[in-house]
Amino acid sequence: MHERVSGRVQHESTIRFLAQSLLLNLTCALLPVSWEADMFALAALSGGRPLSTLTRHLFEASGLADAFQMDAVKLKRFLLTIEAG
Fold this sequence. Notes:
The structure is a single chain. This protein is an all-alpha fold. It has one domain (2-84). 78% of the residues lie in helices and 0% in strands. The protein has helices spanning 2-30, 39-45, 50-62, 64-67, 72-84. Helix 2 (39-45) packs across helix 3 (50-62) and helix 3 (50-62) runs antiparallel to helix 5. The longest helix has 29 residues, at 2-30. The termini are far apart.
């Protein structure tokens, strides 16, 4: 019984993570490439993490993440650590 509950919690957590990632990726994709992007809107949509969200998007969109064979999870953790101070 404990395994089913634990598996369900993990499944719900994964779905929540994927939904949030999709929302953040769509938000970054819709941001114009200019200095006039609404960082307050990005901050609200990213749960208060605009720096890591935008940086991750730029790394992926520019091909740097693939070029340097960066692990997506490690990149995310690294950027969140920097953003946390």
